[in-house]
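Narrative of accomplishments. A recurring question from our advisory board has been how the design workflow behaves on a single, concrete structure rather than in aggregate. To address it, we present the structure tokens for one chain from the evaluation set, followed by the sequence designed for it. No filtering or post-editing was applied between the two.
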């Protein structure tokens, strides 16, 4: 699970994240929405230990990401919007590297890596250097490698970028299946239809503050005057003003 308490991040005079409080339960599929510069990527960087907060804390499965980073990171599968690789490796070599990094049982890794390569249509690229792969192929490799150690928490930033419709469906089905099996999924996306289709709950952040939280139905029905409108309209209404939406939280 993910437990966030008064999490804040300041860049000089800019308060990018303002006392975020949020609990994401085991097995919950949580979608994190917001306009550009709302604080989504900052939140993800804090959750994954890529940055240290100015205030507050975040726990992954009971481990503080700032104070117990190794134990917390063992439990995370992180999929960024633009993944970085050791480009001279092949995809299979990179999968072996990830298995070693997370101390995956060699027998399990030997079985699971080819399965993930097959699932994400990577087999034909397995012997090529990563530097020669397209953006979409690299993105599929990032997803496959993040799932190799069977993380308890999956944190994803725009996973569908660069994927064709077939692989978008594969990713959506895999993430939903993992969530239903007990894995916590924290998905940041601009694709409201993906959030509406997959998420158990949605959080909307604007100007560093959580301005709406709940299921799609709860968010759509929470404020007088927005009944009968779709998620896109409500999202634009909420993030357009950023004021007086405490009753949606």
């Amino acid at each position: 699970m993910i437990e966030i308490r008064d999490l804040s991040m300041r860049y000089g005079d800019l308060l990018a994240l303002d006392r975020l409080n949020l609990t994401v339960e085991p097995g919950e599929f949580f979608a994190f929405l917001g306009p550009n510069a709302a604080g989504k990527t900052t939140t993800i960087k804090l959750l994954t230990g890529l940055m240290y907060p100015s205030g507050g804390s975040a726990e992954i499965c009971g481990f503080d990401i700032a104070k117990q980073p190794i134990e917390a990171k063992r439990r995370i599968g992180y999929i960024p919007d633009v993944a970085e690789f050791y480009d001279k490796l092949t995809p299979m070599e990179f999968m072996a590297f990830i298995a070693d990094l997370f101390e995956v049982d060699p027998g399990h890794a030997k079985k699971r890596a080819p399965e993930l390569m097959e699932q994400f249509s990577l087999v034909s690229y397995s012997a090529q250097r990563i530097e020669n792969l397209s953006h979409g192929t690299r993105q599929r490799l990032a997803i496959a490698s993040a799932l190799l150690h069977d993380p308890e928490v999956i944190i994803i930033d725009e996973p569908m970028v660069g994927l064709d419709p077939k692989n978008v469906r594969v990713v959506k089905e895999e993430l939903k299946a993992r969530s239903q099996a007990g894995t916590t999924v924290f998905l940041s996306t601009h694709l409201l239809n993906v959030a509406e289709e997959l998420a158990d709950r949605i959080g909307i952040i604007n100007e560093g503050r959580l301005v709406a939280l709940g299921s799609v139905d709860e968010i759509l029905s929470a404020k007088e005057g927005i009944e009968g409108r779709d998620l896109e309209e409500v999202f634009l209404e909420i993030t357009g003003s950023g004021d007086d939406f405490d009753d949606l939280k």
